[in-house]
Amino acid sequence: MMKIDNSLPLEYANEQNKMNIFGFWIFIGAEVMLFATLFATYFTLEHRVGNGPAGAEIFELTPVLIETLVLLTSSFTIGLAMNAMRLGKKNAMLTFFSITLLLGLVFLGVEIYEFTHYASIGAGLQVSAFTGILLTTLGTHGAHVTVGLFWGLFIIMQVKKHGLTPKTANKSFIFSLYWHFLDIVWIFIFSFIYLKGMM
Amino acid sequence: MSELFPRKQVMGFVFSLVLTAAALTVYFLDLSFMAAMTVLLATAFVQAGVQLVGFMHVGESEDRTMIYMNIFYGVAIALFTIFGTLLILVWDM
Amino acid sequence: MDYFDRFAIPHPSPAIYASMVAIGLTMIAIVIGLTYFKKWGYLWSEWLTTVDHKRIGIMYLIAALLMLFRGGVDALMMRAQTAVPDNKLLDAQHYNEVFTTHGVVMIIFMAMPFIYALMNFVVPLQIGARDVAFPRLNALSFWLFFMGAMLFNISFVIGGSPDAGWTSYFPLAGNDFSQSVGTNYYMLSIQIAGIGTLISGINFITTIFRMRAPGMKLMKMPMFTWTTLITNAIVVFAFPVLTIALLLGTMDRLFGAHIFSMTNGGMDMLWANLFWVWGHPEVYILILPAFGIYSEVISTFSRRNLYGYKSMVASIVIISFFSFLVWMHHFYTMGQGPLSNSIFSITTMAIAIPTGIKIFNWLLTMRKGKIKFTVPMLYSVGFIPIFTIGGVTGVMLGMASADYQYHNTMFLVAHFHYTIIPGVVFAMLAGLTYWWPKMFGFMLSERIGKWAFWFIAIGTNVAFFPMFFTGLDGQARRMYTYSEATGFGPLNMLSFVGAIGLAIGFALIVYNIYYSVRYASRDIGSDPWDARTLEWATQTPVQSYNFARTPQVDSIEALWDLKRNGKPVFQGEIEKIHMPNSSGMPFIMSCIFFAWGFSLIFSMWIPAIITTIAIFACMAHRSFEKDDGHYISVEEIKATEKDWEVLNDENR
Asked: Would I find Membrane among this entry's keywords (chain C) (predicted)?
């Protein structure tokens, strides 16, 4: 493969790795705009509920708080996984990585519960502009988490098989950026969709 | 064992929990709209900052200048888009 | 059989049946031709699976030229229909479909691939790189764009074309008023092409930031590279907005959401808002690379370095930011208050300033230069006055209060054609002629090229200048006909004549390609224009690895300094070169995307679910794939370089 620079962490060890990380940061910039557009639409349509329910009538604090704490913790554990990776501790890294994905799975489970709950109380996708954009925004974030779960699983399998190489370390690091970013997006959903809607 | 839980990250996690609790005050206390929004904006952006700097190591790579510019540019345009849209379609309609 | 009724055309006409037959015959001809000449293997291994930026650039170019003619035929049909009052050449529905597809094809499927064709071919060469940062993603970008374009183009023979205008405003584009699947085609085909464009954006930013030749600092990049960088920065931040707008439109049309509807709280104006949050930056995505091409061409053929390099860079950076702050000027009349109209009026005026700076820079570059009026230079010089008319009328339209008079009239149509034709089409033709010898190893005929230029330049003015007058007299855009009493007849006839002039110009370009393929000299060396930047410092045709030795650069015009001042650029030993492997996955994955889009358009849920899973399976395959690329050995490089280095020394 390419020239390897041993003075840097594995994930930065060669030129292609550096480009992958840099390119992913640019992608995160694009994702910022993607979610910003959803937020712009959400804020515009927030009070346009037609004959359907308003946010205050359907939001429940408990599941939302569980989702928030679970995702915050998973962001912490993927950070710990990266720390372990830099220490070269493959098993610790895999443990933290697996915990992260399990927490992501819990998050997804609660979100699926939330969606079925909304549908059952008459706040489905087709009810009003508000429910439409609410579910699309949450769904876009949820789809990102789902993709992340599969992606993370594939990376765990590769680290198990090949160990910590410049390639697997690079993939893991980029995954951690993705996961932290999803947490940031969730913070904004938590603050400006749920808390703002419930206060 | 302790090297697996570096102080910086543990503190970041604790801080993010504190920020979440602070944001929850808008639910439990009866704040005015302006005060509540100020709290939410402050906690959300500080929280994002903690993630970016503490967990995502935004400042560690040799491209940090470009990455910072990318983030600032994206956030600036995102805010212009959100507030411009609200101005056009809600506040000035 | 009811299942297949959905594929029927809602408004059949002889023209559509004729195109069905033509499409069928063309496809059969291609298949027979490839089989007869035994070219399937060649097509697959050299083109469909390539990750070489030069070949991808050429494929973009071919697609763009095809789409140019598709969109051009639409334009001719529109001008023919409105040439005389009460014309019955096209009915209202057909006319709606034609102007919609004309707009979409020209912007998304002609202009975008054209700029990406030139970026792909030129930028890695200009910065002294071996390829782009992510060659595999680059191929995926192209194939996603291509499949999006093909999906859009089959609409008019399967299920019906979109007919709500290229802006596809709701509520017209909603299910109540656009019942055919046409607008579904719009939502999904642009979505697929848009994902490809976004990937390209990330790819080029990374390429330019991380793969420049040693010594090429940011402020030493050639101007086309600068504009490519800034253009792709706009792409990265603007295209996600389009992604979401199209997603929300799809939610409304396919899943019965009420985001843009007139009932249940929906807001139709939100579509216009989101569309133009993307749409205005898109204008600058098209125009900035054009500015880069003009800078290269004017500098080369004036035999002078570019005047005001720093102010040029500053102005494109400012434009990139301002382009996100002006979107509301596309809908001043939508009903919002004077506050927002005033704010966006001011930002719109402000963005004219950096563009003005650039015009003066080009003029001052030409001052005291030894100008050679080659074809690329003619387009560049022709661009300046024609574009200025477009720019000045743009400032007129930018004044919110005055815009109530111009809005949605032919005045607007004239304005944006006066900016886009000189701003994009002229630039693309200039760039095409300028870089053609690098791409194909021979030059296009200057004589035929000049004829084509004059037909196109005069045709543009004859076709679009009358629209300023009919627009001010009240002719609305998108009207399929008008009565004789309006008095619009003669000027519209004049427009039609101009459109024919344009058509002749483009036909001449095709003839020029044919003529030059047959008769042009192949003995042109590697630098036929005596140019100034690094892309001309390679062999023609360019070696697969671009540069045997990584160039060392310390000025904006590295090649010029090499030629005139003898500053060495290529030094050091030849080392083995790492290159990416070809792959069929981008093509296969994009074919699946095509099937995915097609399934969703016709609400065929089971195939849609299967193709969605297949798309993710492709991504999983990529995750597990072992792809370390390959090396080109030193001996092989030396063999490739041998003939060329001899030639090269003789040239010096």
From this structure: yes
